[in-house]
Amino acid sequence: MPFVNFATREINCKIVYYGPGLSGKTTNIKWIYDHIKPENKGEMITLATETERTLFFDFVPIEVSNVKGFKVRFHLYTTPGQIIYQASRKLILKGVDGIVFVADSQEERHDANLDTLDDMIENLEDYDIKIENIPLVFQYNKRDLPNVLPVEVLRRDLNRWNRPDFEAVASKGFGVLETFKEITRQVLKKLKK
Amino acid sequence: MMLNLRPEEDKELREILTSIADESKSKIVLLIDKSGQLISRSESPAFSSDDVTFASLTAGNVAASEALSKLLGDKSLNHMFTETEDEGIYMIVIAEKYILVSIFDKVSTNLGIIRVKIKKYYDRLEGLMKRIEERAEKESSMPADINIEDIDLDTLFE
Predict the structure, then answer these.
(1) For chain A, N or C: smaller number of CB within 10 Å?
(2) What pLDDT, on a 0 to 100 scale, did the predictor assign at position B49?
(3) From the candidates A6, A89, A93, which should be mutated to test the interface with B, based on the most B CB atoms within 10 A?
(4) In the predicted model, what is the mean pLDDT of residues B9-34?
(5) Which CATH number is B48's domain given?
């Protein structure tokens, strides 16, 4: 649910990075956080286990000032990818304005991609959100690894709604910004309607 | 639904939150929504923590506790309390969608006082949020003069 405050002239939107375990959701928002100017970001919060697996969520607040006197705030969240955290994933989706689905391009992780996509659709339905109506971007991550599926296969199996999609190597920052720009563009466009 | 606040509503909200903070001797009183966005806060210049981050963590905390309470067969969670060495954080759900948070110094006040003072303003706050929702539902909330092309994300990065 976007939130607009006309008194403080702020617009707030929530963007969630969703995907199977170890697909690179945290790597995406960490890269964004590390490359953003200090004056445009708040504190990054990571609720992770000792082995750096996301336990509940990661959070990065980003602020774009001075858009016709308005401040636009994007709150980026990641979900915990591991299967056991199904309940937590659903909680993070509450009030979501846009989703980045981060898929793992490796062949052996494709089933996990498909299962996670089904899980996401189900969780959205519980909030009365149809996947057709929500801003959504697909990212095929880890393109630098040797055993990746062709993009056409990933696109056919995952991106059934023909949404914008990007290849990425999030650990090197490749494709991260393009993905982020596209989802913010869609979220703002929907807000405008 | 998209929530938006008009300046006069923002002012009234701030007045209520500031009254609760003053009367209960809280350090700060915040109103956030369950998705983790900060909606308003009391006039508490001394409170310097990052309130945006605070809002997102509080919403996560309440969401997890609510899910726990459902798992136990209860319908919903009404309020919760977290205690640190020096401070108390009291959270109460308002109109099912919002969370009112009081952060207080345990030396200056106590949970009982916080709850009594929130109770005094609870109905007024709930009524105001419902009025805002009803109005917001009827009108478009995106500022008409904002153009998506004006938002240059490249300037954000180093």
Answers:
(1) C
(2) 75
(3) A6
(4) 96
(5) 3.30.450.30
pLDDT exceeds cutoff 70 at A155: yes
Task: Give the confidence band of B145 by pLDDT, cuts at 50, 70, 90.
Answer: low
Decide if B56 is inside a domain. yes
Closest-CA residue of chain B to A87: B67
- Which amino acid, one-letter code, is at B109? T
User: Which of chain A's residues have a Cβ under 8 Å away from the Cβ of B157?
Assistant: 35-37, 177
CB contact under 8 A, B151 and A181: no
CATH code of residue A115: 3.40.50.300
Size of interface A-B (CB pairs under 8 A): 129
pLDDT of the residue at B19: 97
ipTM of the complex: 0.82
Structure tokens at A93: 């989706």
Please count the structural domains in chain A: 1
Nearest CA in chain A to B1: A1
Least Cα separation, residue A36 to chain B (angstroms): 4
B79-98 CB burial, b ≥16 within 10 A, e <16: ebeeeeeeebbbbbbbeebb
CA B93 to chain centre: 9
- Print the domain residue range for B128: 7-136
Give the domain extent around A131.
3-192
- Spatial neighbors of A8 by CB under 8 A, at least 6 apart, are A71, B10
Q: What is the pLDDT of residues B58-114, one digit of tens each?
A: 999 999 898 888 888 887 778 999 999 999 999 999 998 999 999 999 999 999 999
CB atoms A42 and B142 under 8 Å: no
What is the rounded CA–CA span in Å between residue A88 and residue A62?
Answer: 23
